[in-house]
From TrEMBL:
Its EC number is 1.1.1.22. It comes from Rahnella ecdela. InterPro entries: UDP-Glc/GDP-Man, UDP-Glc/GDP-Man_DH_C, UDP-Glc/GDP-Man_DH_dimer, UDP-Glc/GDP-Man_DH_N, UDPglc_DH_bac. The keyword Ribosomal protein does not apply. It catalyses: UDP-alpha-D-glucose + 2 NAD(+) + H2O = UDP-alpha-D-glucuronate + 2 NADH + 3 H(+). Belongs to the UDP-glucose/GDP-mannose dehydrogenase family. It holds the Pfam family UDPG_MGDP_dh. The keyword Oxidoreductase applies. Keywords: NAD, Oxidoreductase. The lineage of its organism: Bacteria, Pseudomonadati, Pseudomonadota, Gammaproteobacteria, Enterobacterales. Residues 320-424 form the UDP-glucose/GDP-mannose dehydrogenase C-terminal domain. This is UDP-glucose 6-dehydrogenase.
Length: 441
């Protein structure tokens, strides 16, 4: 089946590559000519496990095509995905200018009926806007061609995007026209074989499902972070509490890991966007506001521990920092806790020697050259002569370090662990001062 995907960002590229992998003929359109050229040369703009060979293999097989030519994209297929970004605008609402621009482009060039699938995370009511924009354009052209707008939110996680997309837990389809479902069924048939993962609903419910899912997960995290603050003050260990409650199958173990705050391109943006949506319709979303506030505060947790330990003024201090990306297996640093941490420590006069397995280039891109930031080639080299070690991201190879090496390299054996990777008792026995999250520091 032929498919066109507008927007070669995270979601668009992964979805396109996975659709090509099962045999569809996918044409990706993007306005960024450099990105398109790079993709044709096998250069993938993001770090995502398994994505590079997947894209290269399907490009070489001629099933995955890249172009900047929107007219060609519209002519290519009946099914047209919109997978462009919806960045927050000034007040945190999702900015729909790229989504509506693609809708207008499709209407400008279409000569036969289309099924337009909204993959981007868009506020409730966007499908109506897409429909209105397209109708207006068609009217302007003086043509009457039918089309459907369908909401099909994406639930992939960075770092596991290819696997999530290959084996989706659910395929949410929102449509007000049952006839629009047939081509979508055919499209997703390879992913839907053994049992039906398709959940059909009206468009607005599908749009809200995406936000509700991310907001629920963010709520779980902020809840645990709030519990961790209580645990700390009450002399309890949040890691014991986590296991104690996770064993209740109604609660479960997923997404109840306390830490130094959630980041990334989705949770912070989507929680904020749903808050704005609610406020626009006159509803005060108190729970979501609290989720956001707790997360904001949580990012200041490690800097507060550090200043409690070393004093407010950190001039002359150097810290080893392990982990810069907002979570493991990605180089993405959007809304990463490491950024708040570094900026706080710099403001207090400290220097940082940082290491991340993937996000070094990204850190360089964001912060450029600074006297107070040294990017190190290995996690061990970051330790040398540092006053303490700070951990912001739970990369696998941080989990079992050689503590003797750490102790020898640091000026003082202090670890500030934003992801609770280690056992406080064992570390204390080895002579470390250990600060974890919610562990009676
Ligand atoms: C999230 C959702 O998990 C995906 O289902 C969704 O499709 C995606 O957003 C999206 O809307 O595109 P992602 O942002 O890639 O995916 O990352 P997550 O794995 O959800 O992690 C988000 C943040 O929460 C990270 O900073 C992570 O460290 C933090 N987290 C996660 C915790 O602090 N504790 C936990 O228990 C779990």
């Amino acid at each position: 089946m032929k498919v066109t995907v507008f927007g070669i960002g995270y979601v668009g590229l992964v979805q396109a590559a996975v659709l090509a992998e099962v045999g569809h003929e996918v044409l990706c359109i993007d306005v960024d000519a450099k990105k398109v050229e790079n993709l044709k040369n096998g250069l993938i703009p993001i770090f995502e496990p398994g994505l590079t060979p997947l894209v290269q293999r399907n490009y070489e097989a001629g099933r995955l095509l890249f172009s900047t030519n929107a007219a060609e994209g519209v002519a290519h297929a009946t099914v047209q995905f919109i997978a462009v970004g919806t960045p927050p605008d000034e007040d945190g609402s999702a900015d729909l200018k790229y989504v509506t621009a693609v809708a207008r482009t499709i209407a400008e060039h279409m000569t036969e009926p289309k099924v337009v699938i909204d993959k981007s995370t868009v506020p409730v009511g966007t499908a109506d806007k897409v429909r209105a924009v397209m109708s207006e354009k068609l009217k302007e052209r003086g043509v009457d061609i039918s089309f459907d707008v369908v909401s099909n939110p994406e639930f992939l996680k960075e770092g596991a995007a290819v696997a999530d997309c290959m084996r989706p837990e659910r395929i949410v389809i929102g449509t007000d026209n049952p006839d629009a479902i047939d081509p979508i069924r055919e499209l997703y048939e390879p992913f839907n074989r053994n049992h039906d993962r398709m959940i059909l609903m009206d468009i607005r419910s599908a749009e809200l499902t995406k936000y509700a899912a991310n907001c629920m997960l963010a709520t779980k995290i902020s809840f645990m972070n709030e519990m961790s603050n209580l645990a700390e003050m009450l002399g309890a260990d949040i890691e014991k509490v986590r296991q104690g409650i996770g064993s209740d199958s109604r609660i479960g173990y997923h997404f109840i890991y306390p830490g130094c705050g959630y980041g990334g391109s989705c949770f912070p943006k989507d929680v904020q966007a749903l808050i704005r949506t609610a406020e626009h319709i006159g509803y005060q979303p108190k729970l979501l506001q609290a989720v956001e506030q707790v997360n904001y505060q949580q990012k200041y947790k490690l800097p507060a521990f550090i200043q409690r330990h070393f004093g407010e003024d950190l001039k002359g201090k150097t810290f080893a920092l392990w982990g810069l990306s907002f979570k493991p297996n990605t180089d993405d640093m959007r809304e990463a806790s490491s950024r708040v941490l570094m900026e706080q420590l710099w403001a207090a006069g400290a220097k940082i020697k940082a290491y991340d397995p993937e996000a070094m280039n990204e850190t360089q891109r964001i912060y450029g050259h600074r006297e107070d930031l040294e990017l190190m080639g290995t996690k061990e080299s970051a330790l040398h002569n540092a006053d303490a070690l700070i951990i912001c991201t739970e990369w696998q190879n941080f989990r079992a370090p050689d503590f003797d090496v750490i102790k020898k390299a640091l000026k003082e054996p202090v670890i500030f662990d934003g992801r609770n990777l280690f056992d406080p008792e064992r570390l204390e026995k080895r002579g470390f001062t250990y600060y974890g999250i919610g562990r009676g520091a």
